[in-house]
């Protein structure tokens, strides 16, 4: 198991910095208290601001495009989606030594979804299939007219080949032969015949919120893009059990080739997180172990 590979330079972010950024750029919120949200994920530091707002600051360069992307697209997507999504209300500029754009959004109440609570729920699985169906059907005319946009174009699965094979060779406790077989099947699976569609791009349990045990919101659209929807099938292996996964697949109408590509995405992203964080974060270790195991089950 690796001990972690996060080597990029990361700015120091604390309440004092956030206070100065907010007070100078959004003085209308200068009196609102700040409270650190912990854990907040690997890409952003998040502060709740007052009762109704959140402040999100990228931790590393790989997340710096999220604030402008969400500000552009979420207001357009929100009316078409059956679950709540963040509503951006401002994009902040670099300042006081902090180098990147950052965001202020409406606060969404809820608890992070867990496999323990919803893994066996076919109702939740079908609801998530409905969310993805609605997202995939969104058709802004200007995108088709402009052609592909770099900020909405994801790297293909094959771009993860070297890192995934290295991780397969490195990790202990998993079936190396089974992982290799799944990965090669995913890479060789044919692409879908239909046109590219919208995908969330990071569709896993940590980006789902629940209220009173029911799904309420989808967050973190930094990976939003247009292309192969197989990447969003990761949710079937991070959240669901075999029974609910079957209901999800049937409701979404996923063909065999797309399903095997989705399993490949789940394997690759699970291995990436496991080798990067599992040695230092037991919670991520447990989650990614489950993800890899479920991807192998199918």
Give a structural overview.
The chain contains 11 helices and 10 strands. By secondary structure, it is of the alpha+beta class. Strand 1 (34-37) and strand 2 form a beta hairpin. It starts with 14 loop residues before the first helix and ends with a helix.
Which structural traits does this protein have?
2 domains, Aminoglycoside 3'-phosphotransferase, Chain: A, domain 2, 5-stranded antiparallel sheet, disordered N terminus, 298 residues, alpha+beta, Phosphorylase Kinase, domain 1, 3-stranded antiparallel sheet
Write the topology of this structure.
Elements: H1 15-25, E1 34-37, E2 44-49, E3 53-58, H2 66-77, E4 88-92, E5 102-106, E6 111-112, H3 115-118, H4 122-137, H5 141-146, H6 161-170, H7 176-188, E7 197-199, E8 208-211, E9 214-218, E10 225-227, H8 235-238, H9 242-252, H10 256-277, H11 282-297
Antiparallel strand pairs: 1-2, 2-3, 3-5, 4-5, 6-8, 7-10, 8-9
Helix pairs in contact: 4-9, 6-7, 6-10, 7-10, 10-11
Mean pLDDT: 92
CATH superfamily of the largest domain: Aminoglycoside phosphotransferase (APH), C-terminal lobe
Spatially, the strands of the biggest sheet line up as: 1-2-3-5-4
Shape: globular
How many DSSP-defined strands? 10
Unreliable spans: 1-7
- Write down the CATH class of the largest domain: Alpha Beta
Distance between the termini: 24 Å
CATH architecture of the largest domain: Alpha-Beta Complex
What is the helix fraction of residues, given as a range?
Answer: 40-55%
- Within the CATH hierarchy, at the fold level, what is the topology of the largest domain? Aminoglycoside 3'-phosphotransferase, Chain: A, domain 2
What's the tally of helices?
11
Secondary-structure content class: alpha+beta
Which sequence of SSEs, written as H and E, runs from N to C? HEEEHEEEHHHHHEEEEHHHH
